Batch of 2 targets.
Target 1
Amino acid sequence: MKRNLFAYGTLMCEDILTRVAGSTPAAAASVLTDFRRLVIRDAQYPGLIRYPGGRVEGVLYRDIAAAAWLRLDSFEGEMYERIAVTVEAGDGTLVEADTYLIRPGFEQLLELVEWDFEAFLANGKEAFIREYTGYAVVSGQAN
């Protein structure tokens, strides 16, 4: 069964999502409420936590195939758990999607600083692509 993905960090970049998932699904801007996206110490990527009143802007990717979910879960690794959420799509409709929440036990790695996507694009994306170990996990999997 195909499900939607709400991406709030590095996977907002279509080229990164395509490399990880093995395909490029339809994408649209979306918002997740009652969560917060924070900097992870010494990392280029963020962590997501529940936070009443919070608001996270991201990308909604529609109809992710089962094989892509296996790749995405492997890429995210043990630091994250996939959960179901409801996001507001750009047209105002509410859409069910899955996203990745930082697991308990890893929350101590978070800094109380909002992760900035534009700063990532300007200063961190190249290093992330070059250095992130999650790519090695999905590179051996078939597209």
Note: The CA atoms of residues 15 and 24 lie 8 Å apart.
Target 2
Amino acid sequence: MTDEASLRRSPDVNTSSAPLPVPGVGECSRPVTLRRTVTDTRNGSSHTTDHTKRCGTRIADRCPSCSALYRGDAFQVIRGGLFDPMTNLPRVVTMVTLTAPGADVFGKTHSRRLDKNGKVRRCVCLKHHAENDRAIGTPLDPSTYDYEAATSFNANASRLFAVTMQKLSRVLDRKMQVVRVVEFQTRGLVHIHALVLGRVSKTTLRLVVRGGINRRTGRRIAAASSGGWTWGPQCKADVIKSDTPGKAIAYLVKVVNYALKDTGRGAARNYTHNEKMTDAADKGLTCGNTFHDCVHGADHAEIMTELLDDATGEITISTVRVHYQGKGTSSRVCRRHRRAEEGWGFRGHVLAKSRSWGCTFHEVRARREQWVAANKPSLPSYLVVTWERLRDTSQARTSSVTSGASPP
């Protein structure tokens, strides 16, 4: 192979002008454009090619293909804790559901529920809402709905769940191994769905959630709380025995599907409700960043600037729409505010697990990368490869989507 051919040759290059779909999941709908530069250290010559890389989102509405990959990874991660690695037999696991407080705390919202016969029940507004009705999840009276309280609960949900698991660990006198997924309701509040290894009875969960007397120690324990918030009334614990693995797998699929949903603003059907939840999330968060001036809410707001001309004494008022500019800039939206806006106060990870639970996302993705790299030729050591992200996504793409293929 000549030096020029070596520069042009790449393990992940495809000569077609359009990205090829990955078997099983298809083509990424919004790939990121990268520029690859291969430099020959012997004579300094270089060659550049443009490539596309998967966006990697977990949200199905944004990219079904990348979401399908995430779904497979999440399934393997969660399944790794449900089965004993030595015997490959299912373990006893408890399905725990923790809900947000009800309408008596935040305010009544439009809803669409079905009765036991599958018929649509009448909403509190006395109407039967269609499945795609934009009013579902929005307040009956926006002027009295407590948006600040809703975003405050979302902000404390992760910590509240951690406190609940700590109390369960003390009550049961064992270390908790758990994986949890956050589900956003149409009204914007979060629910927690968790799989806990071992048995957790309904009585024990109620004791931790509501408080009471610990039968093992005889001591009174307080209800799990964080930031003044406790769980809602509809909290459940269902034990799945090891001889019924099908039920655990069915719940596993349901839990993984929750992780593919959009959060916060992406889940909104009503623009006004969307903006009010976002504004409440901004107001309820203090980032405390001393290295730069955080312009929270700048992705949907305009900043007014006054300039004084010393010579004439005139004041010029200009309006600038501020966007996120990246690390090191003097005026930008910090990461905490961006996450709070997107999650309506919630800033944690949608899917989280104990360290001792099964395998990790890193291990699952490393296996896939090894499988993808097995069929790629290696470059000579004198060729140095560098990558640069191109912000202009409209540039022509000369190679297929890199990585992402799943092993058979």
Note: Confidence is low (pLDDT under 50) at residues 6-20, 297-308, 317-331, 393-408.
